[in-house]
Amino acid sequence: MFSNSHSTPSLNKKLHSFSSPFDHLTEEIIFAILDHLHDDPFSRKSFSLLSKSFYAAESLHRRSLRPLHSHPIRTVSPRYPSISKLDLTLCPHVEDSFLISVSTAWKTTLRSIDLSRSRSFSNVGLSNLVTSCTGLVEINLSNGVALTDSVIKVLAEAKNLEKLWLSRCKSITDMGIGCVAVGCKKLKLLCLNWCLHITDLGVGLIATKCKELRSLDLSFLPITEKCLPTILQLQHLEELILEECHGIDDEGLEALKRNCKRNSLKFLNLSRCPSISHSGLSSLIIGSENLQKLNLSYGSSITTDMAKCLHNFSGLQSIKLDCCSLTTSGVKTIANWRASLKELSLSKCAGVTDECLSILVQKHKQLRKLDITCCRKITYGSINSITSSCSFLVSLKMESCSLVPREAYVLIGQRCPYLEELDLTDNEIDNEGLKSISKCSRLSVLKLGICLNINDDGLCHIASGCPKIKELDLYRSTGITDRGIAATAGGCPALEMINIAYNDKITDSSLISLSKCLNLKALEIRGCCCISSIGLSAIAMGCKQLTVLDIKKCVNVNDDGMLPLAQFSHNLKQINLSYCSVTDVGLLSLASINCLRNMTILHLAGLTPDGLTAALLVGSGLRKVKLHLSFKSSLPPSFRKYMETRGCILYWRDKAFQVDRDDKDWNFHSGKSMGDST
C-alpha cells in the first residue's frame, strides 16, 4: 500500500522539492571537497555514496588508483575514466593482457605506473603500454630481477619518459640501458642501484644521451671513475648517488681535476666508499659550487685534510658522517667552514666528545636537525652546548647516550621550544626531564623506549603539553601503566603510532583508552601479557585506520579478538600474532581481510594444518607469511607452488618455543620498524 507506484504527480512534485541541498553544488566545489579527502579512502567512499551526482563526481575526479588485484580493471576502468597514476604494488602478477587493457582504458590520461612488485609481463605487454600511452612520464620497474634487455629495450618507445626506476633489475646489461638512453632523452630521474651488470659503458651512454638528467642513482654498480667526467658534464644534474661503488678510488678520481668544469650538483652520496679519502673527494667536488647535501657515512676518517675539502662550499647545508671516525683537528676544521650547517648526523661516530660537539654547535648555530645516536662519550656538557647554541632545533636524535645525566634533559625543554622530533631511547631521562620537554608543544615524534626512570607522572606532563604527538615509543619503559596511556590517549588525539611492548603493567584498560584515537595506524603491544581479546576488540571497533598490529606473546588474545579485527579493521596490512591463543577459526576470520599482506604466525598452539591451508586460501591478498618449519611437510609442494604463483611467499622459521624473558629482544630499536621482527 506504500508503493511508489501509487504516488500522485503532485506528491512526486512535492517530494522533488525536498531535494538535497548538495544537489545544487557546482562541480568545481565538489572537486574541491574531494581534494581535501584525498588521503582518506573511506571518506571518499562515503562521499560517493551520498548521491548519484556525488558518485559521478568522485568517478570523474579520481586521478590515482591502487587496485588490490589485477583482474577487475575491465570493470573498474569505465567508472574511473581519468586515471593518471596507477599503482600496482599490490598486484604480484600482471600479465600482458592486463597491460594491454590498461593502455586501452587510459590511453590519453595515464602518466605514471608502478610495477615494482609485479611479475609475469613481458616485452609484449610493456611495449603496448608505452606505445599507446604516449603521455607516460613515470615508470617503476624496480625489483624486476627477471627482467632482461629484451624487456627493457622497449622502453625506448616511451619518448616522453621523465622518471624511471630500475632498482635491483640485476639481469639488465649495458645493451638494455643503452636502448633506454637512445630513446628516452627526456629522462630527469634514473635509478639503477643494484643493477650489477651495468658498467661504465652503459652509464656513459646515459650521461651522453640524456642531457636533462636531474637525479642519478648508481649505488652498488661495478663502475669506475671512467664514467664520471661525462656525468659531471650534465648541466642539470643535481643529485648523484654513488653508495658503495668500490670501483671508484682516489687514484682514478685524480684525473677529474684536469677536466674540471662547473656543474649543478647539489646532493652527493658517497656513503660506504672507504676508498675515497680527502684527495678523491676534492677531485670529485671541485666544480660543485652549489653543493648543499653530502653523505660520507661509513667512509674514511674525518681528518683535517678531509674537512678542508669542504671549507669553501658556502651553500652546504647538510652533512652525514655516520659511523665515521672523527678527529679533534677535523672537527675544528668543520667549525671553520664558510657554510652554516642546518643538518648534521654523527650517529655512531667514534671520537665524538663534549669538546667536539661544543666546537661544532658554537659555529653552526642554525642547526635544525642533529643526530648523535650512540655517541656514548658525551655528557651534560654536550647537551648544555647544544641547547645553548642551537635553540631552533626541530629534530634531535640521541639514542643510547648513556653518560648524559638526568638533569641535562631539563635543558632541552627550556631552550629548544621548536622541537618536532626527539629520540631519547635508552637514556637516563626522568619525570622532571619529561615535565620540561612538555613545553615543546610542536613535538610530533617522541621516542622513550627503555627509559627506566620515567613513569605515569612524566607521561601525563607530555600528554598535557604536547597535543600534536603522532608517534610515541614506550618500548620496555616499564614504569608506564594504564594511567599514563589513558592520559596520552586523551591529550594526544592525533596519535598514529604507539609502542608499549613488553610491559606487564599494561592491561585492556589501556587499549580501551587508545580506541578513542581515531587516527591510530600502528600498535605494538607484543609481550604485554595482561592484554586480552577484550582490549583488542575495542581497538578494532574504534581504530578503523589500523594498518600494523603486533600482538606477539599476548597469550590471552584468542579467537574472540580476531573476529572484531576481521569485521572492523579493513585497513589492516600487517600482523604478528605468534604465541597467541588463536585457533583455526580465528586465523580464518583474520585472513578474510582484503588488505592483509603480511602475517607472522609462529607457535599458535591451536593451529592445525587444515586450518592453515584454509586461511592461506582465503587470504587472497597475502604476500608474505612467516610460518614454523613444522608445518612445511603438511603443505604439499603443489600447494606451496600455487601460493607462490599467486604472489604469496612462505618463509619457514625453525625457532624453538621461547618462554618470555624480559632480557630478550633488546635489538628492537636497532633499525627495525614495527612488525619486522619475528
From TrEMBL:
One of its GO terms (cellular component) is SCF ubiquitin ligase complex. GO terms for biological process: SCF-dependent proteasomal ubiquitin-dependent protein catabolic process. It comes from the Eukaryota. Residues 172-282, 352-540 form the F-box/LRR-repeat protein 15-like leucin rich repeat domain. InterPro entries: FBXL15_LRR (IPR057207), Leu-rich_rpt (IPR001611), Leu-rich_rpt_Cys-con_subtyp (IPR006553), LRR_dom_sf (IPR032675). SUPFAM superfamilies: RNI-like (SSF52047). This is F-box/LRR-repeat protein 15-like leucin rich repeat domain-containing protein.
